[in-house]
Amino acid sequence: MSRKLTIKAFKYNPLSKISKPHFVTYELEETPFMTVFVCLTLIREKMDADLSFDFVCRAGICGSCAMMINGVPKLACKTLTKDYEDGVIELMPMPAFRHIKDLSVNTGEWFEGMCKRVESWVHNEKETDISALEERIEPEVADETFELDRCIECGICVASCATKLMRPDFIGATGLLRTARYLQDPHDHRSIEDFYELVGDDDGVFGCMSLLACEDNCPKDLPLQSKIAYMRRQLVAQKNK
User: Where does the record place the 2Fe-2S ferredoxin-type domain (predicted)?
Assistant: First the structure.
């Protein structure tokens, strides 16, 4: 037997002089295996064509549909409505990012700045010979390094972070994860001193309060806790020299 769902969606257009932040309530019939993304699509197609939210893949790969669902950052496409027993679901845009409209925020702008800040590319003085075989590394080292490339840049760990919400300049778990990825990559020839200059302060690894909501909410189950601890051990050793 289907039940009625009550969806309360935040609506506000910061570019409009007459728009004010408010919630709009929609009611619709639940269907088997329904997700919050399906709800939003039905609402926009049949009830409110003006409702803004982001999506691309609808399969938990692109990270675009991240939003606050009953106060917790989640991917709308991977969140089942059946998990909410009372059928009431409140949707808001994620904090920590520039608000665009309704449930849409600009995560791309933040991630671009983060990647530039931690210099998210391989630093190597060697001249690359594209006709030669790539430099070999041990398979387990490659697996450990490229495991960290599974981040889909959804922004959920950033929106979950109490430090980030209190201090806008904090690099966040995803920034530390990205730094760890290059620190352990044999192709990157930067020293510990170089990485210390990037994230060895209170806006970097030493600002983390270790509440670890980032790992609790990560939709890809990335090892954020262990990598933040790894970065802290490496940089503390450098700091104490």
Answer: 22-95
Cβ within 8 Å of residue 82, ≥6 positions away: 30, 33, 34
What is the pLDDT, as a whole number, of residue 176? 95
| Residue 29 pLDDT greater than 80, yes or no | yes
Ramachandran angles phi, psi of 26, nearest 5°: -125, 145
**What span, in angstroms and rounded, lies between the C-alpha atoms of 148 and 83?**
29
Contact by Cβ (8 Å): 241, 192: no
The length of the chain, given as a count of residues: 241
As a whole number of angstroms, the distance between CA 181 and CA 143 comes to: 11
Nearest by Cα to 46 from 91, 104, 7, 1: 7
Q: φ and ψ at 88, to 5 degrees?
A: -105, 125
Residue 64's φ and ψ, nearest 5 degrees, are -70, -30
Residues 6+ apart with CB under 8 A from 213: 160, 161, 162
Residues 239, 137: Cα–Cα separation, whole Å: 29
Q: What is the pLDDT of residues 121-131, one digit of tens each?
A: 999 988 878 88
Note the helical H segments in 4-106: 36-46
pTM of the predicted model as reported, rounded to 2 decimal places: 0.92
CB 104 within 8 Å of CB 54: yes
Tokens of 108: 């791309």
Per DSSP, the residues of 152-218 read ---SHHHHH-HHHHH-TT--HHHHHHHHHHHHS-TT----HHHHHHHH-STTTGGG-----HHHHH-
What is each CA distance from 70 to 31, 41, 54, 84, 142, in whole angstroms?
20, 18, 18, 9, 38
